[in-house]
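$ ./design --mode recover --in tokens.txt
reading tokens...
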């Protein structure tokens, strides 16, 4: 049995958006009335993850480009519904100033937060999950991260779709039980099924069960597309017609859904410090923004793991 402590990779945007919408602004404000609900929720979620998963290394991944041009070039609908009228992502006005505050606190504690131009946090997570020594645990509320599960490398996904307190600890068997496909087939399964939240239309008339059966039978999208050209492949006429109608989409969708595994990243010190690397800065920030409780809980979680 492998008793090594994991590297915890955190999908920061996924968690701070979830925190923002999960905690009312009225419940978390600085002395001047500035909302800090996303900061408080994010810090508490991170503290819970560190306390319960007991990692010895942590990295928080960032979106330096929430809608990379190379994905949009392949699929123009990608996240198109989330583009603000003036450009950029639709982000609540009161969330925007909270993100730098989260980064300031992470820096004072000594937890690296990293992104890369032209890539999403998903791609940073994928690169670190496949390039760092295992075991690795990826904490995210984004189902696309399920594709990173890899039992051989010791990569698990902590799916936080219902919150960190109710996270789903996913290995390959759990992915198969939940979705009917192995983790390695999840990206193709997702491309077939579609995801309206990301502007992925999927194949009209193909739901989760049909998508899972196709991936299980033909292995991957390349196998499915090859089988479309084989009269003996056994497709029902209706299903063949749906897949043929979506052929152009299916040719590009996997490249959009699959995370990049080769993002250029700086060398990182991933080991958790025994205590805050800049305690004075952390104390000043916590006092100014009425965040003493969440900061203390995070520091304690790191010290007690």
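writing sequence...
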């Amino acid at each position: 049995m492998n008793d090594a402590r994991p590297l915890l990779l955190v999908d920061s945007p996924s968690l701070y958006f979830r925190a923002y919408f999960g905690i009312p602004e009225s419940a978390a404000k600085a002395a001047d009335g500035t909302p800090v609900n996303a900061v408080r929720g994010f810090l508490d979620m991170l503290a819970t993850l560190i306390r319960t998963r007991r990692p010895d290394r942590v990295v928080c991944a960032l979106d330096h480009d929430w809608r990379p041009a190379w994905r949009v070039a392949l699929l123009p609908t990608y996240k198109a519904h989330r583009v603000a009228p003036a450009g950029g992502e639709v982000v609540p006005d009161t969330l925007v100033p909270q993100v730098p505050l989260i980064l300031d606190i992470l820096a004072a504690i000594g937890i690296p937060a990293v992104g890369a131009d032209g890539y999403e946090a998903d791609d940073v997570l994928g690169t670190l999950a496949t390039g760092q020594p295992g075991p690795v645990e990826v904490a995210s509320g984004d189902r696309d991260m399920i594709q990173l599960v890899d039992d051989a490398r010791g990569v698990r996904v902590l799916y936080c779709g219902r919150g960190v307190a109710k996270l789903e600890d996913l290995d390959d068997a759990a992915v198969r039980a939940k979705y009917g496909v192995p983790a390695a087939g999840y990206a193709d399964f997702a491309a077939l099924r579609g995801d309206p939240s990301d502007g992925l239309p999927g194949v009209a008339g193909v739901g989760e069960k049909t998508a899972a059966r196709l991936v299980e039978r033909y292995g991957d999208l390349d196998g499915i597309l090859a089988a479309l050209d084989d009269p003996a492949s056994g497709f029902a006429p209706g299903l063949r017609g749906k897949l043929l109608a979506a052929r152009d989409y299916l040719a590009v969708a996997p490249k959009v859904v699959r995370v990049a595994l080769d993002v250029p990243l700086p060398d990182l010190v991933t080991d958790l410090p025994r205590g805050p690397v800049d305690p004075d800065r952390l104390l000043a920030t916590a006092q100014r923004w009425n965040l003493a409780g969440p900061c203390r809980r995070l520091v304690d979680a790191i010290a007690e793991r």
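exit 0
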